[in-house]
Amino acid sequence: MMEKSRRREKLAFSLLFGLWLPCCLAQTTPSNAATRTPTRIPTRIPTPSPSPSPSPQPQTERLMVRLTGYPRKHNEGRVELFHKGEWGTICDDDFSIANANVLCRQLGFVSATGWTHSAKYGKGQGKIWLDNVQCNGGEKSVESCKSRGWGNSDCTHDEDAGVVCKDERIPGFVDSNVIDAQVDDNKIEEVRLRPVVATARKKLPIMEGVLEVKYKDGWAQICDLGWTIKNTHVVCGMLGFPHERKVNKNFYKRLKKRAAEKVSRPKVNVSAGGRQTSKAKANSKSKQSPAKRLYLERQKNHFHVHSVACTGTEIHLAACPLEFSKRNATSTCEGGMAAVVSCMPGPLFIQSSGLKKKPKISNNVRLKGGARVGEGRVEVLKDNEWGTVCDDRWNLQSASVVCRELGFGTAKEALTGARMGQGIGPIYMNEVKCLGQEKSIWNCPFKNITSDDCQHMEDAAVRCNLPYMGLENSIRIVGGRVPYEGRVEVQVGSKWGTVCSTGWTTKEAMVVCRQLGLGYSMHAITETWYWDTSNVTDMVMSGVKCTGNEMSLSHCQHHKTVSCQKAAAKFAAGVICSDTASDLVLDALQVQQTVYIEDRPLHMLYCAAEEDCLSKSAAQANWPYGHRRLLRFSSQIHNIGRADFKPKAGRHSWVWHACHGHYHSMDIFTHYDLMNANGTKVAEGHKASFCLEDTDCHEGVSKRYECANFGNQGITVGCWDLYRHDIDCQWIDITDVKPGNYILQIVINPNHEVAESDFTNNCMKCNCKYDGHRIWLHNCHIGDAFSEEAERRFEKYPGQLNNQIP
């Protein structure tokens, strides 16, 4: 009874306190509080001991978390939280892997692999926001975990906590952690160009206009007094443009002067009652000349910045020395006007810009493995062979040099830890130290690589700023369970409708996911009746055929007039997108080292014949007598991507082959072809994926897939599947091939049945010399490993054109 009585007293006190506190707050709130945006007022009740208590209730806005410090990779660093307009750290007291898991998920990673103490990534500055944090591990945000409360800490920055996250992104997670650019976000968040000439507003990208910066809930201008071309260079980079152009200031000065003259003698249409009519007001506003618009903007006193002094190497305007307007200042940029900026787009965006001369881009640097335009693993060309860049000291300055030389703006992100997949072949550069003004990464200081310096798991990558094209506004996916799947609905003219699924493949789905900024295409769906939740039923696009590299579905081939055999809404095309994808690549050296010829008796080839692994002439052979001549080799297939390679079909639909006693999870996993100089196939073979499994893996990676006992099939990231030379169908039947010089070509996942981040490295080629008795392979390489010049030489080496053995 005593216990119940105490509980009643406690409940009564809580109710009384809950009623009294709002009254007190209301009495002390200023009279103009109703006009303000409500903010959360954290209340602290003194506690007799420092034992952790639940943190304050989560803020209405999502808590911002970032990783920072040095040295670090993209998935590790000192943890900082943004609270009350200020970044601060977390103390390492009572820190645990559970805390790290919660924080890593907030950052978009699937989990944590570890945490650090004692300011391993350097000491932070400012507040230590949380101390004695104790999470269970399942919380959505660290602010839901127990702690001392915001700002209540007895730590110093020597105890700043850090986390190491697993390098695997949560599918569909949009925000990403950036290697800090030393940019003060409180100064300038965002910039834009607002064209003065009305016709320019309809054209994208916008390349010239009044420069405006995001300020509070609106936009403000920058005074052009002392404005230099270096400032313009920085702004253009932020907006996705590699180069700047000189502005015709006389044009804008004439507009300004003309506007001032017109405004001094305004003409007003008045009604019979002497008042300006609403129609006249609307007409006068809509018919404002460019000059008048420019003048009126100047009179609005929206000059947030009065002085900018960039050196030209900055990646963000906020990194430049700035002089801001004082809060109560009335200056309207005396003697100047709003800063106007003009930019030059890269080749990809030149088509819609009206420029006749296309700017050139680098031919010895490229981006590979990215889902979106302007992102990917950095690869450089040396001695006609492509290689990668190690991520040691990789930063935004170096990344921006790469972005600009490829026709994009400055870098949004400098990614480390093979975030865009691992490359193959050599690693050419380490510790690249660009200053920012270099024309090419090759002009920057760097260290040459030794065998002990770097591995491909440290390949550097970038995400570049791109001009705004508005492509995402003409397409949407609806009906899916999550935001990155659904039926494609496109806008043609002013009408929204579905897309015919006839001929709909992974390539078309790749373009859709890219256009929406949703990453890679995992599946191209041809029946979407289970996603039919939209009112849109008309089909507006059919016959879509893409190369897979287009920026928009409208850039792909398609019928001028809609023609679809299955026009019902349930057969509309759909997609499933993902932030990560697999990437298969063949070990070219393994093929070259294991090749040989075998004359195999026909009585040992019945199963192979049943699975169509022999040439057509085998059907006319005198079975079981005689033999077939087979070109044999081993295939070692690595998954260097960021997601496991798994068959599209589930195990319930795998096909059992009794002859060999195994299931086929994919009808065709590889193509084997022998071609002459004209590219004509003289012999061919194929390999069904009767057993996709992890034969072996890199150190620290565990096997996940094994075919035994009807197990799951696939290839784990960091693992490889080995098809030995001595198993059935691991060959090309060359019984009918004459002696000569040929090209051996092997293509993995040839029908693009399973999505990958990069299909260009699925093909491997070798020079092949056959004298009728023996065979030699040389120059085996992945299809995109050489320069175009080297590839042409490869295809025309001596003796191939006349098909004679040298």
Task: Describe the protein.
- This protein has 806 residues and is of the alpha+beta class.
- The protein is 15% helix and 26% strand.
- Strand 10 and strand 11 form a beta hairpin.
- Helix 4 crosses helix 6 (290-299).
- 40% of the residues are buried.
- Belongs to the lysyl oxidase family.
- Mediates the post-translational oxidative deamination of lysine residues on target proteins leading to the formation of deaminated lysine (allysine).
- GO terms for molecular function: copper ion binding; protein-lysine 6-oxidase activity.
- Keywords: Copper, Disulfide bond, Glycoprotein, LTQ, Metal-binding, Oxidoreductase, Repeat, Secreted, Signal, TPQ.
Write the layout of secondary structure elements.
Layout: H1 2-28, E1 53-54, E2 64-68, E3 76-83, E4 86-90, H2 97-106, E5 112-116, E6 127-130, E7 146-147, E8 162-165, E9 191-194, E10 208-215, E11 218-222, H3 229-238, E12 243-245, H4 249-264, H5 278-286, H6 290-299, E13 303-308, E14 322-324, E15 340-344, E16 365-368, E17 375-382, E18 385-389, H7 396-405, E19 411-415, E20 427-430, E21 447-448, E22 461-464, E23 475-479, E24 485-492, E25 495-499, H8 506-515, E26 520-525, E27 539-541, E28 574-578, E29 584-586, H9 588-594, E30 596-601, H10 606-610, E31 627-632, E32 635-639, E33 655-657, E34 662-664, E35 670-675, E36 681-687, E37 696-697, E38 719-723, E39 731-733, E40 740-748, E41 763-770, E42 775-782, H11 788-795
Parallel strand pairs: 4-6, 11-13, 18-20, 25-27
Antiparallel strand pairs: 1-7, 2-3, 3-4, 3-8, 5-8, 9-10, 10-11, 10-15, 12-15, 13-14, 16-17, 17-18, 17-22, 19-22, 20-21, 23-24, 24-25, 24-28, 26-28, 29-32, 30-31, 31-39, 32-38, 33-34, 35-36, 35-40, 37-38, 40-41, 41-42
Helix pairs in contact: 4-6
